[in-house]
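Sample 1 of the test manifest.
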Amino acid sequence: MHSAGGILKVTRYADGSLVVKENFNVNKQLVGITAMLKAANFDPTDRNWVMASYNPAGKVLSFGKVGSCIACHVLVRHQDLVFAPPPTQLLPITTWKAFFPKQEINPVYVALIKHHPEALVR
Ligand code: HEC
């Protein structure tokens, strides 16, 4: 672990760690929840994270070793597959487009990239 501007950056999360993210659209409505749980020996090649996504009603949309989640999160392998805390880890627009070709990119995110070019994950 090391500190970046008062925020702790973790390079290895302990077994049992749970990270939950609520995802909102531009109208601030909850559109989904993604979570990752560190479970000992679950999937050693991908750092033992169980990936899960839910709709706002709590229905499970994906769970387990989810390739599409991992494909993106390996970009921050040096932080144990965890991007947080933004905005220190920003994905290039081309990467977002490759994963979500039909989605608009949040203008707030585009502005963050513009103001924090040093934070782009390469
Ligand atoms: C296009 C790349 C991409 C894909 C695909 C993706 N994520 Fe993420 N994820 C990110 C980025 C970038 C962040 C940090 C920025 C943010 O919070 O929006 C993040 C944040 C998270 C977080 C909060 C912890 C952290 O890493 O900061 C969780 C939990 C999470 N994602 C789970 C998932 C799950 C589960 C899936 C698959 C269903 C998934 N993600 C698919 C890019 C991706």
